[in-house]
Every structure is written in structure tokens, then in C-alpha cells.
Amino acid sequence: MKWYHITGAFGVILLCIAHYMGLFIAPPEAMMGDVGRILYVHVPTAWLSLVCFLIAFIAAIGSLWTGRRGWDATVVASVEVGVVLTALLLMQGSIWARPTWGVWWTWDPRLTTSAILIIAFTMVLVMRNVIEQPQRRLTITAILTILAFVDVPIVYYAADWFASLHQDHSSPETVSKPMVLVLRTGAFGMLFLSLGFIGARRQIALRENEDIADALPERPAELLLGEEGRS
Q1: How far is CA 127 from CA 123, 136, 138, 153, in A?
Q2: CA torsion, points 187, 189, 193, 198, in degrees to nearest 10?
Q3: pLDDT digits (tens, 9 = 90+) for 186-230
Q4: Dihedrals phi, psi of 213, to nearest 5 degrees
Q5: What is the pTM of this model?
Q6: I want to staple 48 with a disulfide (CB 3.0 to 4.6 A). Which of 40, 149, 157, 190 is the partner?
């Protein structure tokens, strides 16, 4: 059994424990009552979506720096898992918004920047799929990932920087102890599950991209110029 199978399975166990605690043990949220229990799913999803994009950003730098296909496989794996988590995040947010804000969607800064985030990283995957030349695909994917990552800190700080309906950042000091335990358990569960998915998807990407050389040419800029730039 591979490490990512074990990691993912451990994440599922932690998530089951966290969700049981969130539904049956943790107290209702002071303002929202039982509706607030969705935060035990929503908040870990939000955290780990950004963590996945951070991993993709670091891997994109490694991909550009070394040209190794292992970094490239990590980029595509992390971006795909991050896009899935962000899609789940927006759906969970809509379910939460309806009873609390009275609408399924509003152009709140946090929601808007999150929508931009999923569009930006989806475009990374789309562009990657239309580029056939392996080494150029590696380079373009890394560059687009770095550019898309610019929106990640904006999403994180949107509620602080702009007038927003979204609640401010929580901390252990602002959340009751039973809720902190559930959130942390859910966060670690989502972390291990995400790492498991990234590891499994990375192995698939490595098999798909066996035509990519272990390293880029000495002048990576040639990948953008094409054969004409080498003459």
C-alpha cells in the first residue's frame, strides 16, 4: 500500500470523527444555532483549498527552476485538488448563506475573489491540456500557476481588507473550546485527505507525462520561443 493510500484513509477517519463531533457533541453556534454546524466542514475546506494552491505555487517555482517532471506532476495534482476543494467551498458557502444572509449568492469580496480563484486555476488546467509540446506545457503551466496564486492572499485577507458580510478570521481565543477541537480535527482530516489525493494524482501525472525529460534545456526561455528561437 502506498503512503498516499494510508494518508488519505487516515484523513477520512479524522473527518468522520470531526463530523460526528460537529453534529452531535459540539454546541450550537451562538448566533446561527444548528445552521452554524456547517462551519466544521466549510472552514477546513477553505483552509485546505488555499494550502493546495500554496503547494502548487511552491511546486511551480521548483518546476521552473529545475524543469523536473516530478515538480510538474505536483503542480497539476495540487491545482486539481485545490480546484475541487474550492468548488466544494463555494457550494458549502451558498448553503450557509441562504439561511444566514437570505441569498444563495452575493458579490461579497470574499465570495467574488474565491470565484475568481477557481476560474484562474481552472484556466491553468485548460491551457495545460491544449499545449501538446511537453516541455513548453511544463513551463506554461508553472508560469500560469504562479500568476493565479496572486489571488490566494487576496482571498484570505478579503474580509479584512474590504467591507464584507463574511465573518472575520477566527482564532482559538474567539471560539469555544469544544468548537476548536472539532475544527482542528476536521482541518487535520482534510489535510491528510488532500495530501492523499495529491499523492495519488501526482503518480498518475507522472505516468501521463513520461514523455517529459528529467530537466529542461539549458535555456528554458527557448520553450516559449519555439524552434525558431533556437536558430
Answers
A1: 6, 11, 11, 23
A2: 40
A3: 999 999 999 999 999 999 988 886 655 444 444 444 444 454 444
A4: -70, 160
A5: 0.84
A6: 190
